[in-house]
Each structure stands twice: as structure tokens, then as C-alpha cells.
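*** Fold description ***
***
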Amino acid sequence: MTTKRNNISIACCDLRSAFNTGSIFRTADAALLEKVYLCGYTPFPPHRKLERTSRGTHKTVPWEHRGSIAELITEKRNESYAIIAVETEEHALCYTDAIYSRPLMLVVGNEAHGLAQEVLDLADTTVRIPMQGHKNSLNVAVAAGIVVFEALKGGEAGGQ
């Protein structure tokens, strides 16, 4: 049986933590995402820590390692994907106010440095999750999960 996946992908750009990458696989499985792209030095299978955190979802969620996030964004744009970066920038749109057109690729970045300006410049939109506490951001895997499920609100499996 083939599972009908949502036409939303997520690109992880230079994540340091295999645990975060594994958690994103879990989210991708829960949301039936189309694909997970692991870009730059983001850990990818086989990797013991990633596999432990993913709880086997790295075997069921389609994924691909890419060296260049810029090339991936260009390729996906040419395939008519909307590109939405998730970042803490002040001028970014609140994630609940964004329009999540499909097909869609979300882009999340490094735990300490976020996404490079080059990547932000390539995105169609940048969204942020407003923080009310002392820290200015959430863990990247948590933030990815929040935005993925917000994006799902707009359509059914197979997309809009």
C-alpha cells in the first residue's frame, strides 16, 4: 500500500544535532511530509543518534542529502514550490499569518546561527514564532513541528 503524502517538504540546513534531525524525521512521519532534505553538514543516515531519535522513521520517510541548500531551493522553485524559511528575524511574518501555498518547502537552519542571509534572500517568505519568554527562539525541531502543522491546516494530503 502506498501512503498518500502531503506535498510539503522540509529542508534542514546545516543542523549540528543528530537528535534534532531525528526529531524532524518523527515530525515528517507524523505529518506525512513528502520528503526531508538534509543539506550541508546536517547529519544523515546511517547515524546512531539520529536513528535512535527518529525511532525508525528515517526508514519510512523519503529523504535525500544535498550539499547545497541554494541549489535545492532553486530546483524546487523551478518545480513551482513555495519556499518558506523559518527564522527568528524581527521583520519575519508571524507563522500563523503566512499563506502556505502548495507545493511547499519549509527551510530550517542551524541551531546557533539560523539560516544564512543568502538562504533568507532565496525564500519567498520568512516566518517566525513569536517568543514571550527570555529566549528568542525554540529548539529547531520544535519550531519545525509547529510550522509544519500550521502549514497542514491549509490543505489535505496531496495538497491544494
User: Anything to note?
Assistant: The first helix runs from residue 18 to 30. Residues 6-152 form a domain with the Alpha/beta knot fold (CATH 3.40.1280.10). The first strand starts at residue 6 and ends at 13. Residues 156-160 have pLDDT under 50 and may be disordered.
